[in-house]
Amino acid sequence: MHETHTTYTLIDGRRVAAEIKKEITVRVQQRKAEGKKIPHLAIILVGDDGASQTYVDHKVKACKEVGFHYTLMRFADTITEERLLKHIDQVNTDPDVDGFIVQLPLPAHLSVENITEHIRPEKDVDGFTNRNFGSIVSKNPLLLPATPNGVMELLKRYNITTEGKHCVVVGASRLVGAPLSMMLAEHGRATVTVCHKYTRNLPEFTRQADILIVAVGKPGLITGDMVKEGAVVIDVGTTRVEGPQYKNGYTLKGDVDFVSVAPRCSMITPVPGGVGPMTIASLLLNTLRATELRHA
Ligand code: GUN
Predict the structure, then answer these.
(1) Is residue 131 one of the residues assigned to a domain?
(2) Whole-angstrom Cα distance, residue 26 to residue 24?
(3) Is the same domain home to 158 and 236?
(4) Same domain, yes or no: 60 and 98
(5) 289 in any annotated domain
(6) Which residues contact 176 (CB under 8 A, 6 or more apart)?
(7) What is the distance in A from the centroid of ligand 1 to the CA of 238?
(8) 49 CB under 6 A from ligand 1?
(9) pLDDT by residue for the chain (296 residues), tens digit each?
(10) Which of 24, 121, 241, 289 matches a 20 to 30 Å C-alpha distance to 228?
(11) For the chain, how many structural domains are there in total?
(12) Is the entire prediction scored with pTM above 0.90?
């Protein structure tokens, strides 16, 4: 008979994010008392994608909570790339804006790479630019990719050590999987396996994970039979699933089939309330850092 983890610890990202926001609030108040610049985050939102609007609302609310200044810049989904790049130029040089983000996804006629690479790395608080991707392995890091750093911070605050452990990252995206696997290896000293859509026999790899991190965007991809007993499972997936049974007409679903996976885990993040709130906490931390870099 195998040992089974029918009792697992739920990793509460909301609680940790609230803790971090409290710490940021104190630092903002200190800056205010010392007459220093108050962090200012600008958010560029193109079009009216419902999910993006919700995420942006959460980011604005978080700025208000910690006492940051913020500006929401909205554009129609018909905006040309040239116009948007010009606007980014303006924000890049606006002395009052310490950091800014361009909310993704963008309409198909806009190149995500052209647009994110146009952001000044010192103001790139999502950590999307190639310079900040390089921050992960740099002796002179600027701003770390925000969502992956949020995951690292969540592990740290739950005392989940990664050194020498086998971390399996499912998903190799430019924004999450790829930078996160680098951070786990570089900063976390973990042995890292990266799986993606070309991986053959995914369960063979996921079953080896001491720490399984999934960032794909396919609800229910990971089922109980794919997880080792006692593993830590971090679910970065947040897919909006619509249905009349849900309040507001939709719900958020992770990549992990919670019902079959949770009983096998030692610890697991829920969706919502796991990694999502950490992404925002991490964005705020980067904005504070960007401010400190410019106005010590
Ligand atoms: N869309 C989904 N997640 C993110 C994020 O972390 N930053 C931005 N800018 N857009 C997103």
Answers:
(1) no
(2) 5
(3) yes
(4) yes
(5) no
(6) 145, 147, 148, 215, 236
(7) 11
(8) no
(9) 455 667 999 999 999 999 999 999 999 999 999 999 999 999 999 999 999 999 999 999 999 999 999 999 999 999 999 999 999 999 999 999 999 999 999 999 999 999 999 999 999 999 999 999 999 999 999 999 999 999 999 999 999 999 999 999 999 999 999 999 999 999 999 999 999 999 999 999 999 999 999 999 999 999 999 999 999 999 999 999 999 999 889 999 999 999 999 999 999 999 999 999 999 999 999 999 999 999 98
(10) 241
(11) 2
(12) yes
Residues 116 and 150 in one domain: no
Range of the domain at 235: 146-276
Q: How far apart are CA 284 and CA 160, in angstroms?
A: 23
167 and 260 in a single domain? The answer is yes
Number of Cβ atoms within 10 Å of the Cβ of 47: 17
CA gap 47, 76 in Å, rounded? 5
> Do both 150 and 235 map to the same domain?
yes
Ligand 1 touching residue 43 (CB < 6 A): no
Supply the residues annotated as catalytic.
Answer: 59, 103, 126
The reply to whether 30 falls in a domain is: no
| 154 vs 158: CA distance, rounded Å | 6
Whether 234 maps to a domain, the answer reads yes
